[in-house]
Please model this.
Amino acid sequence: MVKLTPEQRRLLEEPNLAHISTLMKDGSPQSTPLWVDYDGEYVLVNTAEGRQKTRNMRRDPRVTLSVVDRNALIKYVEIRGRVIDLIHDGAYDHLTKLAHKYAGPEARNPAPPEEVRVIVKIEPLHVSGVGVG
Amino acid sequence: MVKLTPAQRKLIEEPNLAHVATLMKDGSPQVTPVWVDCDDTHILINTAEGRQKPRNLERDPRIALSIAAQEDQQMYIQVRGRVVEITTEGAFDHISKLGRKYFGPDFVYPKRDGETRIIIRIEPEHVTGRA
Model:
């Protein structure tokens, strides 16, 4: 487990989009943008059952995220880590919290009712970046 | 080979960053944000010799990238593909052109001693998203 510096943490706490890469069945990479959250220890992202990245992370827990400062495109952090849990409990509320963070306090939860949301808990193992301490 | 739609192409042509995933020796993913460009058939990125990305791509040409619109983050594309060429030819001019795209017409990309730029040409094989 690696702890993020205050500057790295700031990038995750502000409404900057993360891009997460996971591994397909054949070992090739897949990359998608998504909302991200940090609880002081773990990086948390929110996705849904049935999606490609969810299937990928269940098969192979190795993931990498990159987050760029939306106001200074030269600042970014890369976090290589491992998925340690995929959690259904509280995942819908977690998405609501992320919607407020990224789209404003009035924003509605974008998930359709039939969707099963998942919190992905990621342990940071290796953190680097340019312009972030 | 998949052809990009005009909307997907527009997302690449505007100054949005691409996040590029390559594979480390142990098969784990590596991701970095990069400047990006395209022509009629391929997606082009630019890096420098000796960096992790080109080392990874020489070993395994499988690559993925995702690009979200800076102005509207709900608009994005994700691409899976394969590197078909890595070349130094025209690579400094290409990085200069990318610099102007992202930082404006007056931007001059600095020539750095010992840095050899390279263009990585990517054939898109699978493209999805909301563009």
About this structure: The first helix of chain B runs from residue 6 to 13. Chain B has one domain: 6-130.
